[in-house]
Please model this.
Amino acid sequence: MRSNRNGNINWDVGHERMCQFIANTLNDPDTSDSPELERIRASVSAILDCENPDTSGQGGPHYYLTELAVRWCLWHPEPIPHVPNPTLKR
Model:
């Protein structure tokens, strides 16, 4: 079981899908170079594989992916329509 602040009690397959969505979305050669693309994959893997992920701030995988998500949004300002996934909990 993952342990982090609230024990990650609500971590489920939906969160794992979210991590994969983030990895797939940020895997954008228009926004990131090759070493950065590798770090994105490593950061997502670290979050998915770690029992006690580093959420301490700058330098951790959550922080890094958050910073890249902001940059990605600045590079891609047009909204992307959301298509609900009926297999996920609401």
Remarks:
- The chain has a mean pLDDT of 81.
- The radius of gyration is 14 Å.
- Residues 13-74 form one domain.
